[in-house]
Design goal:
Layout (H helix, E strand, L loop, with lengths): L1 E7 L3 E8 L14 E10 L2 E8 L4 E7 L3 H15 L5 E6 L10 E2 L2 H9 L8 H15 L4 E6 L9 H4 L6 H4 L9 H14 L8 E7 L3 E7 L2 E5 L20 H11 L3 H10 L2 H6 L5 H9 L3 H25 L4 E5 H6 L1 H10 L9 H5 L5 E2 L8 E4 L4 H14 L5
Parallel strand pairs: 1-6, 6-8, 9-12, 12-14
Antiparallel strand pairs: 1-2, 2-3, 3-4, 4-5, 7-8, 9-10, 10-11, 13-14
Helix pairs in contact: 1-3, 6-15, 10-11, 11-13
Length: 403
């Protein structure tokens, strides 16, 4: 079964293609035959694209990026030159609203629902629909397209976890906690259990998905029971350029006393806050750490706030879970920031958490980095949303056709 998984964001996207066996898939991820990663965040109007084939050969190219289509279309055509047949394309869709949580064919009705949710995930849903349209143009109508929703994994939240304590009428209007990063929370929790030789249904985990966007999920028996992101991907942890949770009274104050509009507040909270807003350097943790090492006090403060809020939110997830077997770090920051993992685990030492210092400093992909005596296992798991999307496509395409 020839599957293409597309994982798009506002300034980059990943393509993953593999010819997978028609029967059941293994738990461990299979390698792709072809990948492409396009990034247009470094140079205005230019997309940097890296292609990798099954042998690991890498080709780097650059294209003008005056629109998403100007990047997406040639990348997809490059795939067709090497692999002229695709059976199904899976798309990561950040927000499907209350109605769409399970994977769904991208009919006109589903596309319209995704467009309606773009207000609540503005950096993602619109771009993801452009990726769907690019597949229409390049592949035509001969390939199925499947939406795999980031919110889907959190459909198991109890109402006490997803209903906000505002007016009850909010719920009828769709104002509730949805949670995000669900595709990778699902993958990382399953992968962590596999690495520990445990059934995912038998352990309690906190998965820390830490990238430019960041969220935690409390996972009990393989099911999400709480998460830090909410109605939008803005709630919860401090992030690269997003504020995370703040006192809503601040917004009322800014409206009344600074004359801020909704558009201005949206821009400030999503683009000018977080690591970037505090450090004044960057929303990239690597650049913040470098500035901190050079003596930049605002960069140090940004890192300290990030770590403090992460530990505080982990504490909340601990209380909800009522225990913990594994703490999982994933995402670009989670996988590549040893100082952050050390601070978190040092502050959780009262629970019996203890790192192996050497493993933490130089972790292998997908590794338990806890010391042998640690009562709680600590794992670094490489994010692999593309494999999880491919699994969902395989499961969907393998179902018997309805009569």
């Amino acid at each position: 079964m020839k599957i293409l998984a597309l994982n798009g964001g506002s300034s980059s996207f990943k393509c993953w293609f593999a010819d997978l066996p028609a029967n059941s898939l293994p738990d461990d991820p299979l390698p792709p035959q072809w990948t492409a990663r396009a990034d247009w965040s470094h140079h205005a109007g230019v997309a940097e694209v890296r292609f990798t084939d099954a042998a690991g050969a890498i080709v780097n190219r650059e294209w003008k990026a005056d629109s998403h289509a100007s990047v997406l279309d040639p990348v997809l055509r490059a795939l067709l030159e090497e692999h002229p047949r695709v059976d199904i394309v899976g798309h990561r869709i950040v927000h499907g609203g209350a109605k769409y949580r399970d994977p769904a064919l991208l009919t006109s009705q589903v596309r319209a629902a995704i467009a309606r949710q773009a207000e609540f995930a503005p950096s993602h849903n619109r771009f993801e629909l452009e990726a769907v349209q690019a597949v229409d143009r390049v592949f035509g109508n001969n390939v199925q397209q499947l939406a795999v929703f980031d919110t889907g994994f959190h459909a198991t939240l109890d109402r006490a976890a997803f209903v906000y304590p505002g007016p009850y009428s909010w719920l009828a209007d769709g104002i509730r906690r949805y949670g995000f990063h669900g595709i990778n929370h699902c993958y990382a929790s399953r992968r962590a259990a596999r690495l520990l030789g445990k059934s995912v249904g038998a352990i309690k985990q906190i998965v820390c998905h830490l990238g430019n966007g960041a969220s935690l999920a409390a996972i009990d028996g393989g099911k999400s029971i709480d998460t830090t992101m909410g109605f939008t991907p803005l709630e919860g942890l401090m992030m690269g350029t997003r504020s995370g949770s703040i006192d809503p009274g601040i917004l009322v104050y800014l409206i009344r006393h600074a004359g801020c509009t909704a558009e201005q507040l949206d821009h400030v909270l999503n683009q000018e806050s977080g690591l970037a807003g505090i450090s004044g350097v960057s929303g990239d943790m690597r650049e913040v750490l470098a500035a901190m090492e050079a003596g930049n006090d605002r960069a140090r403060l940004a890192f300290e706030i990030y770590a403090h809020r992460l530990v505080r939110e982990i504490g909340g997830m601990l209380g909800v879970l009522g225990g913990l077997d594994a703490l999982v770090f994933t995402g670009g920051v989670g996988e590549n920031c040893p100082p952050l993992r050390k601070i978190v685990c040092d502050r959780l030492a009262f629970l019996g958490v203890k790192l192996d210092a050497n493993k933490n400093d130089r972790p292998n992909p997908d590794e338990d980095i806890a010391a042998a005596a640690s009562r709680i296992r600590v794992l670094v798991v490489r994010a692999n949303e593309e494999w999880q999307i491919a699994r969902e496509c395989h499961r969907f395409a393998s179902q018997p056709a309805p009569h």
